[in-house]
Amino acid sequence: MEKKAKSKEPTKAKLANAETASIDEATQQMILRAQELGVETIFDRAVAMKPCNIGTQGTCCKNCGMGPCRLPLPKSGIEGEDNRKGLCGATANTIAARNFIRMIAGGAAAHSDHGRAVAEVFMSAARKETDAYRIKDPIKLREVAKWLDIPTTVEVDGETLDRDTDELAVAVGEKALGEWGKAEGEVLFAKRAPKARYETWKKQGVVPRNIDREIVEIMHRTHIGVDQDYRNLIKQGTRAAIGDGWGGSMLATELQDILFGTPYPLATEANLGVMKEDMVNLVIHGHEPVLSEIIVTVASSKKWQDYARSKGAKGIQLSGICCTANEVLQRHGVPPCGTFLQQELAIITGACDAMVVDIQCIFQNLANVAACFHTKLITTHPIAKMEQDNVIHIEFDEHHAVEDAERIVKLAVDNYENRSSEVMIPKQKSSIIGGFGVESIEYHLGGTFRGSYYTLNDNIINGRIRGIGGVVGCNNARTRHNEGHIQVVKELIKNDVIVLTTGCNAIACAMEGLLTPETAGVFCGPGLAEVCETVGIPPVLHLGSCVDNSRILLAAAEVVKAGGLGNDISDLPAAGSAPEWMSEKAISIGHYFVASGVYTVFGVTLPVSGAPVFQNYLFKEFEKLYGGMWDLEIDPVRHARKMIAHIDKKRKALGIDKARDRILVDMDTRRAMESA
Ligand code: SF4
Ligand code: MSK
């Protein structure tokens, strides 16, 4: 047969369809703008490159030089015995479990190393080695000290006095740093979980010893020829994930609050439209707030605003991407200009004078995009550099934090006059209320009189609030940007489920205008709408960044403590979700939600589908061990309905499934609950 001649025509690069790539109009406009300018973005790359099926199923092993060993799931499924194995004999279940817990190790390491870096800055501040930081929340310092078993008072001449704040801060910093590598004992914050939860972990043998050790042990156990039982492998994954959620991430959040201030509700805006054509736009991107805190102070100072005006700009406009955005939004009201998938687009506006990045979720392609514009791209972290020549590295050190921040702000301002291409900033932006946390939920929904979550619990018991949804996580270029996030959240609030959000889900909800009290009357069921309107809160509460998922854990622990909804997190009418997850951190978060007793649904895909026995263990058997379990649901509405079905199951188990609308729990019942 004659061979068909190959076409000499150059193949035209496949480009993304803006409308099917994102639900967000600003994003759609900028995708088209990028294509018009010939600048490639992740949306185009996602069209050009398809993921590997076997990797997606979790059954490709490259843990030794004899692989990769690829174990695809037969199209017809597995009938009878599953004989698939790698060269060493590793089964699909072993391979998928090893891969899964290596993802947990990657995610837990990222969160926890972030926490360690914060703890080191905390120590410098406590020891007065730097003037740039000081203790901003001494009340939280005392609270955290107690959980670290540090005395907060001293006896002087028979009198009990509060310990000096500076001295206490040093003690807290030292003890906190020990949590990463202490030789004995267990992660101290594990005891912040409800007693029943802690006992479950004890019984299962998964209380973390220290944060680092559990991550290292995953790497050991997944080396060729070590742990070959998927149940034993995931047990170690569980221990490391708890060490993340109730250890590294929780320490990061708490120390950041003590050092930078505990967030309280504030108003700002979100989406690319927050950038300003006539101002210097400095975009902060990444995760660690230690530098961005100082950049906010420097950039808003009169000195640097005047300097910007001297260069012809109207001032400096800070905005953020990813979780550094969430950190500076929560504490200062700096507006987020986009989610994870919009980072290239912020530069393509032509108005980004500098983008400063620290760690995690930063595309290497930012350097290529920045090279097409005047944008200065600045890396700041010793562990996160880029190879491209146009990237400037200004290594941040807390001992000269202000000088570093000033260099960065000056670079941005001086670059304003170098704007070369036409500026195109989408108009879209939404008003939002952010800055929620465990304390502010208590204040708004608990009331200062009782100082706890009683009112929230009452509203759950009487059915106005059906339950709690923790919806978090990334964007994923394999699915339509923000569609899953928004549909899941809207379906939940429509059904009276209050949503606690963090990470890129929080930014997506912000862009969609769901973070305002007014949203309640438009999108919520009548019960949730009534509660939100009465107390003046949005139905979707922004709790912060990825490490701040620890706030969701602590909020859940507070709900248990307030009474009337069981003794453990697994008793609560609550469910977790990451509709568009992509990072290893999301897997670690998902797993510590599950290990904490939360039914947790992921969207897009989950890399366990090629190992049905292991998948079944996570999706079903886990509930018997921990009360929480994994699930996968790609369709956002079904995804939300599965969460609601679980919430209803828990309401039934608690005996609060019957309509009890408008019935507030009276004091006698309350006392009975407390003594139960
Ligand atoms: Fe293959 Fe086993 Fe090596 Fe994995 S560890 S690559 S399954 S031989
Ligand atoms: S930034 S980890 S994309 S949430 Fe925390 Fe967003 Fe996911 Fe990064």
Task: Explain what this protein looks like in three dimensions.
There is one protein chain. With 676 residues, the chain is of the alpha/beta class. The chain folds into three domains: 92-260, Substrate Binding Domain Of Dnak, Chain:A, Domain 2, CATH 1.20.1270; 272-418, Rossmann fold, CATH 3.40.50.2030; 430-675, Rossmann fold (3-Layer(aba) Sandwich). It is 47% helix and 11% strand. It has 27 helices and 18 strands. Strands 8-7-6-9-10-11 form a six-stranded parallel sheet, sandwiched between helices. Helix 15 links the parallel strand 9 (352-357) and strand 10 (376-379). Helix 6 (138-147) packs across helix 7, helix 10 (230-260) crosses helix 23 (549-562) and helix 11 crosses helix 13 (322-332). The termini are far apart. Residues 1-5 and 660-666 have low confidence and may be disordered. Bound molecules: iron/sulfur cluster and Broken Fe4S4 cluster. Broken Fe4S4 cluster is lined by residues 287, 322-323, 340, 361, 473-474, 503-504, 545-546, 583, 585-586.
Largest sheet: 6 strands, parallel
Distance between the termini: 83 Å
The dominant shape is: globular
Oligomer designation: single chain
Low-confidence stretches: 1-5, 660-666
Mean pLDDT: 94
Secondary-structure content class: alpha/beta
- List the bound ligands: iron/sulfur cluster, Broken Fe4S4 cluster
Strand content: 5-15%
DSSP, total strands: 18
Total number of domains: 3
Radius of gyration: 25 Å
Topology, element by element:
Blueprint: H1 18-21, H2 25-37, H3 42-48, H4 53-57, E1 60-61, E2 69-70, H5 92-126, H6 138-147, E3 153-156, E4 159-162, H7 165-178, H8 195-204, H9 211-221, H10 230-260, E5 266-270, E6 280-286, H11 289-299, H12 302-310, E7 316-321, H13 322-332, E8 336-338, H14 343-348, E9 352-357, H15 365-371, E10 376-379, E11 391-393, H16 401-415, E12 430-434, H17 438-446, H18 454-461, E13 467-471, H19 483-494, E14 497-501, H20 503-511, H21 519-523, H22 526-535, E15 540-542, H23 549-562, E16 574-578, H24 584-595, E17 599-602, H25 612-626, E18 630-632, H26 636-654, H27 667-675
Parallel strand pairs: 6-7, 6-9, 7-8, 9-10, 10-11, 13-14, 13-16, 14-15, 16-17, 17-18
Antiparallel strand pairs: 1-2, 3-4, 5-12
Helix pairs in contact: 5-7, 5-9, 5-10, 5-24, 5-25, 6-7, 6-10, 9-10, 10-23, 10-24, 11-13, 11-16, 19-26
Bound molecules: iron/sulfur cluster and Broken Fe4S4 cluster.
Residues 61-64, 66-69, 86-88, 90, 95, 224 line the site of iron/sulfur cluster (SF4).
